[in-house]
Amino acid sequence: MTAPDRRSNAGAERSDDSESSRRVVLFDMDGVILEGWGTDTAVRRRALEDLLEDRGLTVDDGCREALAAEGYDDDFRAACEQIGVDPAAFYRARDRRSAKRTVSRLAAGNRRLCADVGALEAIAERAAVGLVSNNYQPAVEFVVDHFRLTEFGVTRGRDLGPDGYRRRKPDPHYLNEALDALGASDGLYVGDRATDVIAAERAGLDSAFIRRDHNAGLELGVEPTAEVGSLEELLPLVDDR
Fold it and tell me: What mean pLDDT is predicted for residues 200-206?
């Protein structure tokens, strides 16, 4: 899959804003800062069951599968119509419960930081750093606060509801928000998926693909600016910028 080339335009627009804008390194969270691909899909299914119980709704298996799927799509909306609920409001309510369950699991120690996050301190001495994730905003905020990741100048996760779903990477929406918040005109995005590389390119950023145990055999299908095996390996890339 090839992303549209928007690098020069995005960079030019931000460069005009301020000659003193800073270099920036943005990080994905799941698989980069926090161990593992992401939150277990069982969390979303349990959140749906919570919501159905709260509203006293009974659904058949086919409808349940559509309502438990991640996407805000035609199948989800059709299932909502079948049970007589507003699709956008129901999706947002499910997201709220999913985010709450995600935070509870993190608080219980379900996932740990990656072993090399100590490199963030040295990176933050060289550039402004931020965290941009497809995970829910409450989960991203919790990770930063719980693990005392004070290096991040901006933390951005997915908003709850359909708009948040649509703006997930590879859409560059949240990357652009983070760049604007940091006053950045140049940057690097560090991720562990093809969607991270594509989102970086669409936001006018270089990309660093980090290969860890969970994605060791992944065929990326896109070309990152660089590939690294740990956060420590980012330091020369940041120094060269």
Answer: 96
Are 130 and 154 spatial neighbours (Cβ–Cβ below 8 Å)?
Answer: yes
Task: Say what the pTM is.
Answer: 0.89
> In sequence order, what are the beta bridge partners of 129?
25, 152
CA distance 233 to 35: 18
Task: Give the list of residues 6+ apart from residue 207 with CB closer than 8 angstroms, or none.
Answer: 188, 189, 190, 191, 196, 197, 200, 201, 224, 225, 226
What is the rounded CA–CA span in Å between residue 150 and residue 65? 39
Q: CB–CB of 192/28 below 8 Å?
A: yes
CA distance 66 to 141: 29
Q: What is the mean pLDDT of the chain?
A: 91
Q: What is the pLDDT of residue 22?
A: 61
What percentage of the chain reaches a pLDDT higher than 70? Answer: 90
Candidates 3.30.40.10, 3.90.550.10, 3.40.50.1000, 3.75.10.10; correct CATH number of 7-36+112-239?
Answer: 3.40.50.1000
- pLDDT of amino acid 239: 84
Q: Kindly state the average pLDDT of the residues 41-70.
A: 95
Residues 6+ apart with CB under 8 A from 75: 66, 69
* Token code pair at residue 166: 């649509």
